[in-house]
């Protein structure tokens, strides 16, 4: 039997001292010492083929241009269901974003945007956190009641010219840029227990302007000719 050093586990703003004994059967037996009245299960069974619940690289089944995945073949549904039942996880930590209220009087046909985008609610099962790690995000579906629905906005044509009706000054160009926000979501830790973490989520599509390299080169060339 191998003993792992005492570590600190921070989950939902509660600091717990955790001692883990890893048995040869592939399960984890836990003994906790805490000054609070928090009730912790004494045993957490891991799926045998999971050596770690955190990945350094994006799964091949995920889109290369996104920071999240909704459908992951390796999502540990049964493990998460078992852990949530044993920990008696409050459902107050879960839910879905409410749809924004449109306060304008214009109809959708009268509206136009200089950067086309898609707005929708996603239920990610894996995402990239602020440390560039890929972690499983708890989304068990409506039947279990543990869902995390997030409102996002994705550029349809990122890094391309905005559909700007006017004209800019010479030497400038417009470009559609994807913007991101950081969201706190309940995910799985390295040993397969729930913890809060911060994830990078696409939040808006904005039109920006920038100077072109051609204009800057022409300006430098003109300054050099003036000096001569």
TrEMBL record:
InterPro entries: Cystine-knot_cytokine, Spaetzle, Spz/Toll_ligand-like. It comes from the Eukaryota. Transmembrane segments: none annotated. One of its GO terms (cellular component) is extracellular space. Residues 113-208 form the Spaetzle domain. Gene3D superfamilies: Cystine-knot cytokines. Keywords: Disulfide bond, Glycoprotein, Signal. Residues 1-25 form the signal peptide. PANTHER family: NEUROTROPHIN 1-RELATED (PTHR23199:SF12). This is Spaetzle domain-containing protein. It comes from Hypothenemus hampei (Coffee berry borer).
């Amino acid at each position: 039997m191998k003993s792992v050093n005492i570590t600190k586990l921070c989950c939902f703003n509660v600091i717990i001292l955790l001692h883990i004994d890893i048995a040869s059967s592939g399960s984890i037996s836990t003994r906790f010492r805490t000054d609070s009245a928090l009730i912790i299960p004494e045993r957490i069974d891991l799926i045998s083929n999971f050596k770690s619940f955190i990945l350094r690289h994006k799964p091949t089944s995920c889109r290369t241009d996104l920071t999240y995945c909704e459908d992951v073949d390796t999502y540990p549904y049964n493990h998460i269901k078992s852990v949530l039942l044993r920990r008696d996880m409050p459902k107050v930590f879960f839910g879905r974003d409410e749809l924004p209220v449109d306060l304008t009087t214009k109809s959708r046909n009268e509206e136009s945007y200089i950067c086309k985008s898609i707005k929708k609610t996603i239920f990610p099962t894996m995402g990239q956190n602020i440390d560039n790690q890929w972690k499983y995000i708890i989304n068990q579906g409506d039947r279990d009641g543990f869902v995390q629905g997030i409102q996002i906005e994705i550029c349809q044509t990122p890094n391309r010219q905005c559909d700007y009706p006017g004209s800019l000054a010479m030497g400038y160009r417009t470009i559609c840029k994807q913007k991101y926000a950081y969201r706190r979501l309940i995910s799985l830790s390295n040993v397969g227990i729930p913890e809060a973490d911060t994830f990078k989520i696409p939040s808006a599509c904005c039109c920006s302007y920038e100077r072109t390299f051609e204009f800057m080169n022409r300006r430098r060339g003109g300054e050099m000719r003036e000096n001569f």
